[in-house]
Specification:
Number of helices of chain A: 11
Number of strands of chain A: 15
Shape of chain A: globular
CATH class of the largest domain in chain A: Alpha Beta
CATH topology of the largest domain in chain A: L-amino peptidase D-ALA esterase/amidase
Order of helices and strands of chain A: EEEHEHEHHEEEHEHEHHHEEEHEEH
Radius of gyration of chain A: 22 Å
Oligomer: homodimer
Largest interface: A-B, 65 and 66 residues
Structural class of chain A: alpha+beta
Distance between the termini of chain A: 48 Å
Helix content of chain A: 25-40%
Chain lengths: 401, 401
């Protein structure tokens, strides 16, 4: 049993505080966030598959690899500190060291993360000054400020938490995230920071994170199609006294709650996609293999022709079928059926049941489902996407300037 | 030695005629094209990799597979006759048979092709009536009419020809094509029809076509990312009396001319991309393998973040590097250099030489080159792309309605 907490955040679990301030990297808006745990945490992370990795990401990835315990995450927006060479790496190390010193921690107890423009020198001295202001601001109420401070082109704060009732007691999981270029799941930075007061060993924590990311953030973005800075971090500080173990009764329930939380976070990113006006669930079923279901889901979710048709509320099912056809998945087009939020559009043998008016009504809603069944087997996958609008171009045409 | 012919077309080679008329499939514009050779032709073709194949494409593909000689190509626009089931297949067979009967040919001497909306029944009786008008209209001057009649969202007629001077005499190669959704090389229909009066055996013709498509049309679109109707056809009627053979002196020269023609055709498609205002050559060099060069070229040419930055004349080289990084190719980001039309932007070790003002001037031009050198090896590849503008969304949001 779990339920979402109203106004929940990364600070909802016991022992976590956060803050978000303006330190001068952006022109005006909040640009520095700090998440802090009163207790040492085990830490898990998933990181970009991009060959080009930002310096802060490399440093945080190493901390996780070395099984270090973690107490803080420092994040700046407005500058990605990516493609900045050795001096950029030095700047990232400074950011980590200064934060650790001011919190009386070891450097390896601090994870760091940056998001924003690529290839420009990070004004790291502004972070140094900012640390003196942000550390005293840490509070249980600071989750939303932190969520605001990690935003780039995001238009909405993304902050959630769930309360999980387990046989052995209650735990809480909270998270904040950012990401907005996901309208075309292609290189837009996606950051997620998740906390829990459950006690979970490092290896199991990594397994849990991998499994949940696979059905949430990886269903809006794609392995190998990620930015230089993408990361999702999960910290467990154990302060609830409740342990989650692999073969325990509570494990499936905790996993369900974590999945629900991360899916909600992932959907919040899609629905805040640059220029997006609609949140679309792409359900693929009836494939021979899981891999085929994912190939088709990815292809439809990524198709700019499908996404523009959705924007125009145009029931262009041919583009959906064609996107499936070019995905590399194996199927017979004559067995395909397509529906929009339970309204049948296409039945097998190309039998068209499309009612243009009803279909267009569904496609005009803010949230709906496109369901494609391949009629080939038992496997399925769910993806999320949004429409592609003129606004997306405007936002991205002069992002830096 | 070869040179482009002013106002050249698919009718420029000896023995070819063409016509283009309005037969009532579209609302007003020309929608039926016919290409005819006075002499029997060997025929080669390359066809979509999409699992979902339009009926006319399947029929034409079979003609080519069966090594039939060909004398005519009948093409309609306004309706793709794709995802139309068995009755769609029957319609395509009718289209082929009627055309053959009225030209006194065997059905297998006629190739057919359709482009337009997917999933709607082809009004094939309009083609039947249209044939009575188009056959008498066939002429040496009809290439431009045919090129116009195969257009969908294209804004410009695409018609070219080259005169090739060979040791053994002169031959001509001509071609028309359509395709305009290529701004995102993803499922937009691309058709190309090429003719020559050289005499070339079927197998060699297929080899020639494959090799040239690979450096032209496949560098704007992508294997496996194609529409239900994509095809490129090459007919050789031999009426010049000049034979091209694999080991002959003339072979390399003929191949060069064919490549030049198809690259020009491919570039005309990109520069007429939906909403496109700029034609961008993406040159990739210094990779370990050819495959890496192509992965990187494809990734940059397809990146909507790169394409929107180009639209805004924003020298966002970080997006170019990040697109390369997510391509799957193997390289060290620190060895990369980037230039825009010979203006160095980034040198190895992330040494930035970017002059924003000069760079922005280049990116404001109608044609320029993005060159990325990976510093890893001797291989290279050239791709073409265009900018991504608000206009693209407008065109695609309500294409059917």
């Amino acid at each position: 049993m779990f339920q979402f907490i109203e106004n929940g955040s990364v600070t909802s679990p016991n022992g976590f505080k956060a803050a978000g301030i303006y330190c001068g990297i952006k022109k005006r808006k909040k640009d520095l966030a700090l998440i802090f745990s009163d207790y040492s945490c085990t830490a898990a992370g998933t990181f970009t598959m991009n060959k080009v990795k930002a310096a802060p990401l490399v440093i945080s990835q190493n901390v996780i690899k070395l099984d270090k315990s973690v107490k803080a995450i420092l994040i700046n927006s407005g500058n990605a500190n990516a493609c900045t060479g050795e001096s950029g790496y030095d700047d990232a190390l400074k950011m980590q060291r200064w934060c650790a010193e001011k919190l009386n921690l070891l450097s390896t107890e601090v994870l760091i993360s940056s998001t924003g423009v690529i290839g420009q020198k990070l004004p790291v001295e502004k972070i140094q000054t900012g640390l003196d202001e942000i550390i005293p601001s840490l509070s249980k109420d600071g989750g939303y400020d932190a969520a605001e401070a990690i935003m780039t082109t995001d238009t909405r704060i993304k902050s959630y938490a769930v309360k999980v009732r387990l046989k052995s007691g209650n735990v809480t999981i909270g998270g904040i995230c950012k990401g907005s270029g996901m309208i075309m799941p292609n290189m837009a930075t996606m950051l997620g920071f998740i906390s829990t007061d459950a006690k979970i060993e490092k290896d199991l924590l990594q397994t849990l994170l991998k499994e949940t990311v696979n059905v949430s953030f990886n269903k809006i973005s794609v392995d190998g199609e990620t930015s230089t800075n993408d990361m999702v971090i999960l910290l467990a500080n154990g302060s609830s006294g409740i342990s989650i173990m692999e073969n325990s009764e509570d494990y499936p329930e905790f996993l369900s709650a974590l999945k629900a939380l991360t899916i909600e976070m992932a959907k919040s990113i899609v629905s805040d996609g640059e220029g997006a006006t609609k949140l679309v669930t792409v359900k693929v079923s009836g494939t021979k293999t899981k891999s085929d279901a994912n190939l088709i889901g990815k292809s439809i979710a990524n198709s700019s022709l499908v996404k523009t048709a959705i924007h125009g509320a145009d029931a262009n099912w041919g583009r959906i079928l064609s996107a499936a056809g070019q995905s590399g998945a194996d199927f017979d087009p004559a067995k395909v059926s397509i529906s929009f939020s339970n309204l049948p559009i296409l039945l097998p043998n190309f039998t068209l049941t499309l009612d243009e008016e009803l279909a267009s009504k569904i496609l005009s809603q803010k949230e709906f489902e496109i369901h494609i069944d391949l009629g080939e087997g038992p496997e399925e996958a769910t993806w999320w996407t949004c429409d592609l609008s003129e606004e997306y171009i405007k936002i991205n045409a002069d992002y830096r300037t």
